[in-house]
Each structure stands twice: as C-alpha cells, then as structure tokens.
Amino acid sequence: MSVPNLLLLSSSRVHGHGYLEHARAQLENLFKASNVKTVLFVPYALRDHDKYTALVRNAIAPWGYDVEGLHTKENRGQALRDAQALFVGGGNTFVLLRTLYELQLLEPIREQVLQRGMPYVGSSAGTNVATSSIHTTNDMPVAHPPSFEALGLVPFNINPHYLETDPNSEHKGETRDERIAEFVAYHCRPVLGLREGTSVRVEGNKATLLGDRNAKLFQSDGGSKELPPQADLSFLLSKD
Amino acid sequence: MSVPNLLLLSSSRVHGHGYLEHARAQLENLFKASNVKTVLFVPYALRDHDKYTALVRNAIAPWGYDVEGLHTKENRGQALRDAQALFVGGGNTFVLLRTLYELQLLEPIREQVLQRGMPYVGSSAGTNVATSSIHTTNDMPVAHPPSFEALGLVPFNINPHYLETDPNSEHKGETRDERIAEFVAYHCRPVLGLREGTSVRVEGNKATLLGDRNAKLFQSDGGSKELPPQADLSFLLSKD
C-alpha cells in the first residue's frame, strides 16, 4: 500500500450527474484496493452535519459502502484511528478549516494519512484543506480560521471548480486566472486549476490527473500550461 | 458638514468607461462640497504602490485634483491628520486589510473619518474595508489578516462587483447569491449587493444609492429585495 493514498476531487457534483456519480469508479477503485467498507465522513463545511452525512450515505450506500459522521463520535481521535477511510466533503472552506483547528483535528488527520496510510478523499473544500493552504479557495470568507495553512498532504495548491472566465464578459471583477496569478505572485507556489469532473489521485510518490478534461497548471514562475487527462503529476509532489 | 462623509464605489472600472470615469460626478460633488484639492491615496491592495498611485493621479489630475500616496509618507499618522480626503483603492481585500493591521492604520483612519469628518472614498476592496468586515469580499484569500473585522464606518456589509450568476450555467460552484446567503446565515447581518457602476453615499445619518442600476439587499432574516437608483439606504445605518 502506498502512503499517502489520496483522491482529491474538484467537485462532488458535475452537470448531468447525480451527487458523486461522476467519481464512482475513482472512489470504488480506491476503496476496493484498500478494502474499505465504511467511510468516516467529515461534514464540517456545511451547517447541517446530519443532513450532509445522510446525503453522502444515500449516494454511496447503493454501491455497498457505509458512511459514519465524524460529528457523531464522542472520541474523534479514536474514530480517526479506527477509520478505514476519511471523506472530507465540500462546502465553505473557511468554515471547514476553522472547525478543524477548533477541534484540533489537523494533526490527528495528518498522522493517520501520512503515517498510517489512511485513504483520504476530499471534494472541493475537502480538497482545498488537503493541500498546502486554503489560499486558493473560491469561497466567501464567512469564517476566520487562525491560519490559512492546511493539512499539507500535498505540497502544492489546488483551485477546485476551476474555469476560464467568459472572455466576452463586461464584468470588471477579477477573472479566475487573475486571482490565481495573484496568489502565485505573492507565494511563488504552483496551483493546479482542477476543472469540475477531474481529480488528483496520489499513491505514494506518484500523482495522476483523473477525469476526461484537462487541468491548468499555474507554475510558480508565473507561467501556465494545460495538462491532459491521465497526466503524470508526480513532479508536483517534489518540494523543491 | 455631515460626519461621516463617505462615498463607497462598487468598482473603479465600468465597461465602456475609463478608470474612475463613471464616478467623476460623484467624486467631484464630494470633493467640492468639502473643498478638497489633494487626495491621500491608500494603494496597499495592489503590489506596486507607486504605479497604482500614478494610475489614480493620472485619472483625476485632469479634473483638477492632486494625489499623494500614503506609502510615500514617513509619518503616516500625521499624513492622515493632514489629509483633506482619503481614497482607498481596490485590489485584493485580504492584502489591503492585512496591511492596514500591520501598519496599525485602522484606528487612526476611524478617528479621522468618524470624529474629524475626513471624507473617505473607497472602491471595491476599499469599500469592503470601510464596512463591518471583509467577510463578503469576492477576492481570493492570498493573505491572512489577523481578523476579518474592518473599519466599521458603516454597520452593514457590502458585496462589491455584485452580479447574478447566469442561470443557464452548467458550473456547479456556488453562485454569488448562495455565497452571500451563507454569510447572512452565519452572521445575521445585512449585505448590500452593489452592482458595478453604483455607489453608496453616506452623509451623516443619511445614506443614498447612487448610479443608474439597482442594488440587491440581502436582509438579515434571509430575504432579499431590489432597491432602485437613488434609494434611501439610511435604514441600514441604524445598528438595531
């Protein structure tokens, strides 16, 4: 088994598909390879934790997997140690990260994922918090976490729900590319623009782009390039 | 003279107009009424402070106003006390607010605006920091301010560059309205969605919507309503 063992989805929903449906094969590949039957779900990015956990349960129960909510556990540290796999759902990235800090869950999650090899699945905000920091979230900052540094399970940043701005727009707010370029200018760190329907699969020191669309890589030198489906992203795992 | 004396622009650029051109009459009305000849510009929301100050100078010098950059002043507190008017430019709201905290400028600005009645003009990020907090900025969080609480020159929040999301979009990221509703749900505070080309003018306890488009008010109870050009917004100044 490779450590870390990650699946980072751009989004849980894709136009024309049910919740998580587009990612079923990706999820099942991961779960089967790691003999996962029950997933520990982290619902903190949305307000109604029970409802959110039920949404995920209803989506993947038909595929043969059970879902438990971390928020229902009295001893969250023990629940993490016992978990077969962790799924961190999307919603508001600021709320999610603030809650992870408040509940002191960052270190226990890092330990389970990076040392024990617990499979980690993230979607949208759950993908943002898996990376170096949440500096490249699209969300509105409705909550103030003590830091934007996140789990750092991979040493680069991801922009989920990545899309080009309509070049014919008359709107004068910054485009997505301008926003990401601003982050790169301040931090000199690469950002992977992950379009809806695509994912990053990390197995040990190997990373691969999944899904049938390109990703756009914003390089730390300010340049950018398109990467095709199935592209080898392993170079992004090197911290140099 | 009414205190406070504010002009809060949604944006400095509007499709089909030069930089600040759409707001010329609004700016000149304010400057003439307060006998302003020189504007103290706060350029911290962008990286190149000299270039940004020159951009503003070139825009309003032809109208007969001089512009000085706060970043060129050795004694910023004295510069604020001497200023005829303050203009806080747009860019990245997080960078702007973090810099205001770092340079300990929030209290001196509040004092000048709320006690001495110094005219304050803000645009986009400069409008966000004038309100209760920057929780309703659209920007990417490229910097981490110690708090999202801002100048509080008005007791509500503004979403600059407000626009409806295209209802035919196949994109699954949250819409602008969903993002603002999320803020309201967490904070129970009203948000004024300020479309490009519109502004809020505050003179003492009177506030008015300027420009020729509606604003959309997201009420603290979760409802929303459209407000027409020239709408009286004074009710938003009451803290109850």
UniProtKB/TrEMBL annotation, chains A, B:
<dbReference type="InterPro" id="IPR005320">
    <property type="entry name" value="Peptidase_S51"/>
</dbReference>
<keyword id="KW-0963">Cytoplasm</keyword>
<keyword id="KW-0720">Serine protease</keyword>
<keyword id="KW-0378">Hydrolase</keyword>
<dbReference type="Pfam" id="PF03575">
    <property type="entry name" value="Peptidase_S51"/>
</dbReference>
<feature type="region of interest" description="Disordered">
    <location>
        <begin position="218"/>
        <end position="240"/>
    </location>
</feature>
<dbReference type="GO" id="GO:0005737">
    <property type="term" value="C:cytoplasm"/>
</dbReference>
<keyword id="KW-0224">Dipeptidase</keyword>
<dbReference type="GO" id="GO:0006508">
    <property type="term" value="P:proteolysis"/>
</dbReference>
<dbReference type="GO" id="GO:0016805">
    <property type="term" value="F:dipeptidase activity"/>
</dbReference>
<comment type="similarity">
    <text>Belongs to the peptidase S51 family.</text>
</comment>
<dbReference type="InterPro" id="IPR029062">
    <property type="entry name" value="Class_I_gatase-like"/>
</dbReference>
<protein>
    <recommendedName>
        <fullName>dipeptidase E</fullName>
        <ecNumber>3.4.13.21</ecNumber>
    </recommendedName>
</protein>
<comment type="function">
    <text>Hydrolyzes dipeptides containing N-terminal aspartate residues.</text>
</comment>
<dbReference type="GO" id="GO:0008236">
    <property type="term" value="F:serine-type peptidase activity"/>
</dbReference>
<keyword id="KW-0645">Protease</keyword>
